[in-house]
Amino acid sequence: MPVVHPSDAVTHETHGARFVSFASPLTGSKELCAWRGEIPAGTKAPAHTVNREEIFHLLIGELLITLDGHTERVTAGDTVIINPGSTLAVENPTGHTALSWVTTSIGLEAELADGVRIAPPWAN
C-alpha cells in the first residue's frame, strides 16, 4: 500500500510559494497529483493558464483568487474548481501564510502571460 509520509514529500519553491508534493508519478500515482500549497503573506503569483482541471481547496487563511478575470475572496473551507483553459492568479493580501490542498491529473502545464510554458514537477 503506497503511503506517503510528510517526511517523504518533495518540496518545490517558485514565485514566492512552496509546493509540497505528496501524490505524483514519483510516489506511485498513476493518474492524479496532489500537493499542499503554502502561500506566504504578501505573495502575488503571476497569472497563468492551465491545461488540466485543478481542484483548489483552501485549508487555512484567506486569498484573492482571480479566475478568467473574475476576482473572489476565498476563505478556509472554500473550494475553487479551475477548468482546463482557465487563467488563474492567486494573491495573499493578508499578514499570514495560507495553506491549500490541490489535486489535478498528471501532465498539468501552465502558460504565463509572456508565453513561457511551465510543467511543474509536483504535477508531472
Number of strands: 12
Structural class: mainly beta
CATH topology: Jelly Rolls
Main sheet characteristics: 6 strands, antiparallel
> Which regions have little confidence, pLDDT < 50, spanning 5+ residues?
none
Which strand order does the major sheet show? Answer: 1-2-3-10-5-8
Overall tally of domains? 1
Shape: globular
What's the CATH architecture name?
Answer: Sandwich
Our measurement of the CA-to-CA distance between the termini, rounded to an integer number of angstroms, reads 21 Å
Please trace the helix and strand order, writing H or E for each element. EEEEEEEEEEEE
Number of helices: 0
Share in helix: under 10%
Average pLDDT confidence is 96
The percent range for strand residues is over 45%
CATH superfamily caption:
Jelly Rolls
**Oligomer category:** single chain
CATH class: Mainly Beta
Radius of gyration: 14 Å
How is this structure best described in words?
The protein is mostly beta strands. It has one domain (9-123): Jelly Rolls. It is built from no helices and twelve strands. The chain has strands spanning 10-14, 17-23, 32-39, 48-50, 54-60, 62-67, 70-75, 79-82, 87-91, 98-105, 110-112, 117-118. The strands form two sheets. Strands 1-2-3-10-5-8 form a six-stranded antiparallel beta sheet, with no helix packed on it. Strands 7-6-9-4-11-12 form a six-stranded antiparallel beta sheet, with no helix packed on it. A hairpin with an 8-residue loop joins strand 2 and strand 3. The protein is globular. The model has no long low-confidence stretch (mean pLDDT 96).
